[in-house]
Amino acid sequence: MAQRFPRLTASEVVRILQHHGFMLVSQRGSHQKWRNNATNKQVIVPYHKGRLLPLGTLRGIIEGSGVPENEF
Question: What is the SS3 string spanning the chain?
């Protein structure tokens, strides 16, 4: 059976990214740009307070960040 993917809000994702060395670079509207200078990775997080991120968006953030999936 396939492993269940986590359902997270933008706030939870941001907390995980900060824990892994990502810093907020800029924001345009509701989209925040987070960058990790050590790994040279960058991700965009759509920040809609309290709403769960769509699974495809969350999957893209996880893959783009280089953070292991089990950390989320």
Answer: CCCCCCCCEHHHHHHHHHHCCCEEEEEECCEEEEEECCCCEEEEEECCCCCECCHHHHHHHHHHHCCCHHHC
* Residue 27: per-residue pLDDT: 95
Do 6 and 67 meet the contact criterion of CB atoms below 8 Å apart? Answer: no
Cβ burial, residue 44 (10 Å; 0-12/13-18/19+): middle
Task: Record the pTM.
Answer: 0.86
Judged against a pLDDT cut of 70, whether residue 41 lies above it is answered with yes
What pLDDT shows up at residue 11? Answer: 94
Number of Cβ within a 10 Å radius of residue 18? 12
